[in-house]
Amino acid sequence: MATIIVQRPKLAWHERWFISTLLKGLKITVGHGIKTFLQIAGRKPKVTMEYPEQKWDDHLPDHYRGAPTLVTDEHDRERCVSCQLCEFICPPKAIKIIPGEIPSDDPWAKVEKRPKEFEIDMIRCIYCGMCEEVCPEQAIFLRKDYAITGLSRKEMVHNKKRLYEIGGQRVGLVNKWNELK
């Protein structure tokens, strides 16, 4: 096999010292600075938001998908039937459900099961909304919350109790509690 020798081009003095590259970068930076100055002088609104004091809550679009949560119906009953569809469809596997049975003496024993444990790892969650779309009982919803914080990984795993606290109530027909079904 023949060896191919490639000749490197000779660089000019300004290319060797990166002067032309530096000047191109300075041109872009100064251009942005001038545009910003003209915006301030013309009293145009700022683009930058001061995050802790100012939030996007008022400016969020209707289709915004935030963190998932569990909701109850208007009678404070669990909507979730532990079908585990959300767990199976979740791309990052952030949802973990352990089904539990409803006692036979309960008036709603026909439902068969409810979640014994329900956990969502908010660190893993990618807010794709697939869990909300696949839920047959409309038990899981994505709320418009983007500031989810915690001091440890353990705090970022929301259990069933925490998810119901955050989620609240949703009014509407739920197949699980439909007496005709």
UniProtKB/TrEMBL annotation:
Protein name (record): NADH-quinone oxidoreductase subunit I
Record's function text: NDH-1 shuttles electrons from NADH, via FMN and iron-sulfur (Fe-S) centers, to quinones in the respiratory chain. The immediate electron acceptor for the enzyme in this species is believed to be ubiquinone. Couples the redox reaction to proton translocation (for every two electrons transferred, four hydrogen ions are translocated across the cytoplasmic membrane), and thus conserves the redox energy in a proton gradient.
PROSITE patterns: 4FE4S_FER_1 (PS00198), 4FE4S_FER_2 (PS51379)
Species of provenance: Prosthecobacter vanneervenii
GO MF: 4 iron, 4 sulfur cluster binding; iron ion binding; NADH dehydrogenase (quinone) (non-electrogenic) activity; quinone binding
Quaternary state and interactors: NDH-1 is composed of 14 different subunits. Subunits NuoA, H, J, K, L, M, N constitute the membrane sector of the complex.
Pfam short name (any one): Fer4_7
Residues noted as binding [4Fe-4S] cluster 1 in the record, renumbered to the chain: C80, C83, C86, C135
Cofactor: [4Fe-4S] cluster
